[in-house]
TrEMBL record:
Biological processes annotated in GO: amino acid metabolic process
GO molecular function ontology, one term from the record: transaminase activity
UniProt keyword Transferase present: yes
Top-level taxon of origin: Bacteria
SUPFAM superfamilies reported for this sequence: PLP-dependent transferases
Cofactor(s) this protein requires: pyridoxal 5'-phosphate
Domain called Aminotransferase class I/classII large: residue spans: 36-386
Name of the protein: Aminotransferase
Species in which this protein is naturally found: Leuconostoc pseudomesenteroides
Pfam families: Aminotran_1_2
Taxonomic path: Bacteria, Bacillati, Bacillota, Bacilli, Lactobacillales
Amino acid sequence: MIEKNIEANNLFASVLSDVKPSPIHAFDEKVSDLPNILKLTIGEPDFSVPEHIKQAAVAAILADDSHYSVSAGTKQLRQAASHFLADRYDLHYDADTEILTTIGATEGLYAILSAILDENDEVIIPTPAYPVYAAMTRLNKGNPLLVDISQDNFILTPDHLRAILANHTHVKALILTNPSNPTGVTYSAEALSDLADVLRGTDVLVISDEIYSELRYDDQHVSMATFLPDQTLVINGVSKSHAMTGYRIGIIAGPAALITPVNMVHSFIIMTPSNPAMAAATEAFDSSLSASDTEKMKNAYRERRDLLVSKMTALGFEMATPSGAFYIFAKIPENLNQDDVAFAYDLVDQEKLAVVPGSGFGPGGEGYIRLSYAASMAMLTDAMARLSSYCENNSATRIG
């Protein structure tokens, strides 16, 4: 018998050639094993999961809650999520038909895109943006429309959106991130209402990623679904608000007509979420302690934000003061290397400080760096000392 060697490239979908690993994680992995490295790269809360939430997961395990749930998640979790959204944001969804439990916000996003996209459908992605959005769009054979909003204070304006819709006839969705990763910018109620006025009456779906909604510092979070409920799917979860990234529980909320087909796709992807994780998320959403759990974290993040903004501004960095999430997105001073990738690697080489190059977040990110301040004050103080040392030693260097 003559064996034929299989060419691996022939086995996989051609779309994979257009998709690259997340630049955030790719950069983080390259520097993680360096001795004495201080990383402000990954959006990973440094807090412990509150004890009462841990105990809910333990209780589920001890009760042998080890069998299949339904793909949409336990009714208890969906009821808790429904209560949370109504209590915190005045959003009202039926727990039985309008809420879906996902494996983190990321799987929820993938399930939505898989459910709505036909080949060459377009998805508007205001940038700088979380790079997973464009990659998932491509994986589902859609075309990401990367729209640079850096000149508009990192906010998508109604006029900009109107112009995009006038020039693109295959737009299926807009991904709106509020608060934003990487900039920390938030949308006001007025800004959302103006965007809703442009979209109302169109067939464009809004995928509203609100995973950082509880980490909003200066005012109350407002959801796009408040203004455009019939065309909006809200993504949320417990990963950022309760430091539960490893539990992998997110939610999608929206009208039943939108949730039902997404749930069908979701059920084929994961079958059901983990029962102990859902029990913990139920406690996180529904406990009387939930708001105070998050408030403690938010107060700490605000203090850390203020430290970084103050120190980095003094060093010549320019940034929008984050009003949500836990990231600084800062423009590199003109007297330093303007190539953000080269800047980031130089910073690692010289000071053992790791930040994420801004160009990885798409158009408008070039010449910026992103720092996560989900780290202790001691780490951030050390990081600022290292950054100051780098700026002092390289202030004459300018490329680009």
